[in-house]
Design a protein that fits this description.
The chain is of the alpha/beta class and about 525 residues long. The protein has helices spanning about 60-65, 120-125, 160-170, 190-210, 230-240, 275-280, 290-300, 310-320, 320-335, 340-350, 375-385, 420-440, 450-470, 490-495, and strands at about 30-40, 40-45, 45, 55, 85-90, 100, 105-110, 135-140, 180-185, 215, 250-255, 255-260, 335, 365-370, 390-400, 400-405, 480-485, 500-505.
Length: about 525
Amino acid sequence: MALAVTPTTPGVYIDEENAFPNSVVAVQTAIPAFVGYTARADYEGKSYLNKPVLISSLQDFMTYFGVIEPVAPAAPLQQYSPIYYFNAQTKKPTVGDYFTVNGNIYTVNPDMSTIYYLYNSIRFFFANGGGQAYVVSVGSYASPSGKSSANGDPLINPNIQFTELSNGIDQLASLQDPMPTMLVVPDGTLLGADGYSELTQKMLDFCGEQESLVSIFDVVGGNEPDPLQFMNDITAFRTGTGMNDLKYGNAYYPFLNTLITQPTEIDYTNIGGGITAVNTVLQPAAGSSVANIIGQIEKPPATNAPTSAQSNQALMVASKDYTNMMKHLMLQVNNLPPSGAMAGVYTMVDNTKGVWNAPANVSINSVTGPTINLTDAQQGPLNVDALTGKSINAIRLFTGLGTLVWGARTLDGNSDDWRYTNVKRTMIMLEQSIKLAARAYVFEPNTANTWALVKTMIENFLTDQWSKGAVVGAKGSAFKVAVGLNQTMTAEDVAQGFMNITVMVAVSHPAEFIVITFIQQQQTA
């Protein structure tokens, strides 16, 4: 035994030796990375545009990316200010929402340039169990175009660019502690079907290169699905995602009607044409309370003028028609893609049950329901696609149970290895944890002593994971680790500096289909 010091004076010396090998520490599994557009991206005079920022709360998000609130007693500003137009129609539309006032039919159509999803998706994330997350802002909100979209137009924001989102994704490549484990781009569907196809392929390629995270996808058209033709949107999504790295993709359908934005956050300033448009729709009688409120808004008093929020509340009290108008506007604002909520669901399941549990049969908070109520028959072609294997996980409304995640498949649905979301994410956790621990042995002697240490280290880690339920089966058969000459390496491998380690694990698969067989039998005694 060689001492750490060379004795020169007679006496007693202590030399401590490690009794245990290095250990493997499980990496975090619930760190989503959100990429998209924000109101701003700066803090204390420093720009955070295209720089990943780790947040732990909505307040953290607001510090870097939210609208800066004025000092009290000034009225608070809107954090997100979409603009919608009330467009008169000659007959009831065949698609989309509408309402009537004084016998006239109106649709609610957005100014496309003002529609963004990231802010509300972050709130959706925290409402569903979210914790830490990275945010990459790739740009700020554009000014309103002053134009209304036509009823039935696909929802496309011309200011959202693939190149900007792609560049934002690339900024995540160097992150290590903690590593992002999910990639979420809620603004992506606003590129339209073609642009989103390019983005999904970029996201899958990125996940394949990094091998440490999965993508959570929305489906273009899920915001306003046609009850009869919605499969066209599914087909377009499947066609557009390509065939590479599908095991890293998880898609959810449809969009959700949420309660994320509260009525106090939206008012008549979010209506194209403002209070003038409100007056045109309502046509209040001269001298009525509604007419007086509108008049005061158009020509506010010199002192003690009410805020827009106060005037909005007064109109809500004075006019049922105005309340109905704002209700339909709120339905549009609160129509959100599910990816933000699913990142929260993944986080909640990971933290309470473990990443090896499927993030399914779980209710989603802050929702009133999906934009289409799928049946068993309608979900079948989404969940199982024999041609491409690209499974789409449905979000469904069940009477008495609420809105549930009713699918747990990756886009690689035809693969026995990578069909299930929790299987792939569990393997990523095991792989990355062992990979990081094995770095301690780079450049160590490639000998039997090192091999034994590495094997013991990995076996101890897998035993711990087996006790938690991540690895299943009898202790002796749930996993196997092999490393050594004539086992995983040849003499030539050792000479060239290779230490090959084989790790075999049995990961739990979800009980997706439960079949109960009933058989009648003859009466006996």
